[in-house]
Amino acid sequence: MRITIYLIIISLFYTASFSFSTYAENIKTLTIYHDSDYSNHNESAYAMKMGALTALAEINNNVQGYQINFIEKDNRGNSNRSLLHMQQFLKDSNALVFLGGLHSPPYIKNRDFINKNKLLLLVPWAAGGPITRYPDEKNWVFRLSVDDTKAGHRMAQFATQTLGCQKPQLLLENTPWGKSNNIAMSKALGNIKTKVNWFNWNIKANSAKIILREIISDQADCILFVGNALEGAEIINAMASFVENKRVPIISHWGITGGDFFTNVEHAIKSNLSLHFIQSCFSFLTKPQTKLTKNVVNQALSLSPPSIAPEKLDSPAGFIHAYDLTKILLQAISQTTLTDDIQKNRANIRLALENLNQPIDGLIKQYKQPFTQWSNDDADAHEALGLGDLCMANYKPDGSIHILNNLEGSPE
Q1: How many CA atoms lie within 13 A of 47 on its CB side?
Q2: How open is the CA angle 378-351-58, to the nearest 5 degrees?
Q3: For the chain, how far is it from start to end, CA to CA, in angstroms?
Q4: CA separation (Å) from 97 to 126, 157, 367, 370?
Q5: Does domain 26-146+287-386 bear CATH number 3.40.1400.10?
Q6: Closest to 252 (Cα-Cα) out of 263, 243, 265
């Protein structure tokens, strides 16, 4: 009798195991690769990840019976590592979308590879102007972020019109990102002739002080700065080391908000140093919150493991942009029929992104056809945000980011 019961139990166990195994094998999956600097600028990488996961959680990470997986790919700010991730993506039969990260150089340097290999790249942070402007109507890169061709205008406008700068100088990182900003900012400043100062990654205090001392001796009345959090902290702390009446106001690109920046410059910020930086024009701190904002916050907090409250992130714009961009992606997917042919899926989604037939409610705004077919006559075809969506901001004493309203009547 005992033997019979034992055999029945064993039989049920193997039947259940087989059934579960068969079920697991039948689960269809698609994957989003997130190529970002999780090593040196984890704050921005984490924020983008949480924004995307929050949007996916709203549809239970499932589209048309496919489970959506999210994979972190740490490029460490290295273009060659990013290229390796792209190659891995293209070999993965489940890889649907390549979500970009903080740094622009990987996507500027590898732009031909991306488009020639039909790699579907969505960019929620990297701001380099050339990234989305591949000269082919079948452009595979879409951005919802700050765009240098507009950022330079907003920063120059703030410097000259709000702060009244008459002798600005540029202080730019010596990378493709910095070089694209040199072109955009020089154009935005028009007839104002400016000196350009360059610095390399991993600049240290002494070198930063030498550059700033020269800028101060040139009697510059403001600095337009382009760099990331690590170098930005060295520049800001170097400026704070000068006596207050020698300091020059700094108008920065948003790269400084991509890492643990405020923690490293808190003392400098509280010493009356003038620092402003560009952001998109949405804040979780705006009161009263809309119904959508409240729902997004609650969804983010319900993730497992729990997300940091979006308003407490060091790089909130990463969350905001990735959330809105993922919502747009999901609308594009809904306009296609997914199959097991991953290349066909990517091609159909790329086409749908250019022809969205429903408005999408995002945190920054409601998007009505944010993308169209790229052409030389419409260089912004793959840019979801316009100049009117970009604002200047500053830090509050507690490290929170305060968005400033744009000048009334400013060109949008």
Answers
A1: 25
A2: 110
A3: 84
A4: 16, 36, 20, 18
A5: no
A6: 265
Residue with tokens 């039969």: 93
Two tokens at 272? 């009356």
- The structure tokens listed for 22 are 């068969």
Q: Tokens 């700065």 identify what position?
A: 225
Task: Specify the amino acid at residue 337.
Answer: T
Does the domain spanning 149-283+393-403 belong to CATH 3.40.50.2300? yes
Give the number of C-alpha atoms closer than 13 A to the C-alpha of residue 195, restricted to the C-beta side: 14
| Cα–Cα distance for residue pair 148/152, rounded to 1 Å | 6
Which of 298, 317, 291 shows the shortest CA–CA distance to 401? 317
State the Cα–Cα distance between residues 127 and 147, nearest whole angstrom.
5
What pTM does this model have?
0.89
Q: Are 169 and 194 in contact (CB under 8 A)?
A: yes
What six digits make up the tokens of 117?
Answer: 């290999």
Alpha helix ranges (H) inside 229-362: 229-240, 261-269, 291-301, 316-334, 342-353
Distance CA 58, CA 75 (A): 28
Question: Pairing relation of β-strands 390-395 and 401-403?
Answer: antiparallel
The pLDDT of residue 411 is 41
Q: Are 279 and 317 within 8 A, CB to CB?
A: yes
**Each residue's pLDDT tens digit, 131-185:** 999 999 999 999 999 999 999 999 999 999 999 999 999 999 999 889 989 999 9
The rounded distance, in Å, linking the Cα atoms of 188 and 202 is 28
30 beta partners: 68
pLDDT above 90: residue 16: no
Cα distance between residue 77 and residue 38, in whole Å? 9
Instruction: Decide: helix, strand or coil at residue 74.
Output: strand
Q: Average per-residue pLDDT in the chain?
A: 91
Number of helices and strands in the chain (H, E): 13, 15
Domain map (residue ranges) of the chain: 26-146+287-386, 149-283+393-403
Give per-residue pLDDT as tens, 183-212. 999 999 999 989 999 999 999 999 999 999
